[in-house]
# Entry
Amino acid sequence: MFIREKKIKCGSNYQEVDIIPRTIEAERNRLGHRIKRKRVSLPKQKNLNDKNAKRYLLQLVNGNFDNRDLHVSLTYSDEFLPKTIEDAKKEVTNYLRRLAARRKKLGLEPLKYIVITEGTRDKNDGYLKRVHHHIIMNGGIDRDEVEDVWSKKKKTMGWVNARKIQTNENGAEALAIYLTKDPQGKKRWSSSRNLTRPVELEPNDSRYSKRKIEKMAMSNDLGREIFEREFKDFYIADVRSVYYELTGWHIYLKMWRKEKADANQRI
# Structure
């Protein structure tokens, strides 16, 4: 058994590090060779009931959005309420197309977004109820413009609200965590193609020993002081340790480049 340090780079300012036990046999069975730099695989099911989809979404949010960007909420009035989740997806896709066109007309940078759609079906008639959308998108546009295009036949389709993402070093992530918790039915998400995708860097299999990881995992600060020395350019936002019966201690870190963390605190 050996200890692997796996870095996942999410944009230029945020990264995650997994420090996990691996066996040579498991590596041979899985790959037959070392991992090289590669894009993190998009989860096959982008259903936010799934923990892998949640983690990937949080990485995507942290790599692309910050406190200059917007959180937009969209609901439907009875007149425009979609009958199926597919209809709801069409409506929000059309909205995003109109918004992209509005940004282009105003001479702004192209629209970047992540949209989360949530809704439950009525047990009696099968129709959707409480369907709504949450969108994390790039800012630089007046919020009135964002709200104005949620319309059809010159009528507002429902309630719409656009507001800036909260100010702190991980405001976008805090919003994403809030939006992905406690799903009622199935929450599904999609994103624009122009987002920066998480990248898994080539792993380091020689930095840590099993004994060193055990010592850090059971210390009061979970090894934070050591990690702060090893990742000098980053602010360590979170350190977590988890013990698994079969493999032992795993350590997970989240970190922001120091210049970015400081700038976000000042916004």
Observations:
- The longest strand covers residues 234-244.
- Residues 85-105 form the longest helix (21 residues).
